[in-house]
Design goal:
Number of helices: 10
Organism: Kribbella pittospori
Distance between the termini: 36 Å
Strand content: under 5%
Keywords: Membrane, Transmembrane, Transmembrane helix
Protein name: DUF1206 domain-containing protein
Number of strands: 0
Amino acid sequence: MNSSGDRPGGGSASAKRAAARAGDHPVVEWGARLGYAASGVLHLLLAYLTAQIALGGGSQEASQSGALATLAEKPVGQVLLWVIAAGFALLALWQLTELVTRYEASDKAKAGGKLVLYSALAWTSFTLASGGRTSTSQQTEEFTATLMEAPGGRVVVGLVGVAIIGIAAYHVDKGWRERFLQDLQEHPGRGVVLAARVGYIGKGIALAAVGILFITAAIQQRAGKATGLDGGLRSMRDLPAGTVVLLGIALGLAAYGVYSFARARYARV
């Protein structure tokens, strides 16, 4: 008799079962929840840096690496970074199991995107915890410059900007329509729902600014324009009512951080 791995699709089914078992493992489940809590810390730090930019200060880069570098400067910051790195790594592992076990292409795409995101955050946290240095803005600029040099690179950079704006719109829609409740195993309470709505909308606005910078870089053929979240936020400061807008985004990022802590408890893992 043939084993399941010898039948058509048997290997795929076995891989899905193995991934499902891994995703249900208590360590992975606990780690995923730790990862959501780490995301809460990250967004609170981003909110702090954004508020500093709004008020005319802020020498630290308002980015994922800048936020984590701020934490590294605090007492016991290095220890927290190791915990955060572990949380993001385990959350990435859980997204990998979701990527394997999901059947819908849209679900696989979301899991794959989150896998890349949380893996990058885990690596950044690990680098800083080990005493290294990294800059998200510099990496974004170098990535954009590399794309610009490729045939049709300007078009690709422009499409990246459009894609980021699409993700931004997804965040705003998810917050406005409270679709984030689908990610939770039970209703978290009205306060958490309000924080989530404000958080998703605020984060969406910040991402839209990043997308606009990519499109601007493509049109002007200047890779230096695409500097990620930090560049997007700083570009808003000189706009009419830019300070108010930035403070609103800071509030949104802080609210998303609060929601992330609640998600660590209520997430459907």
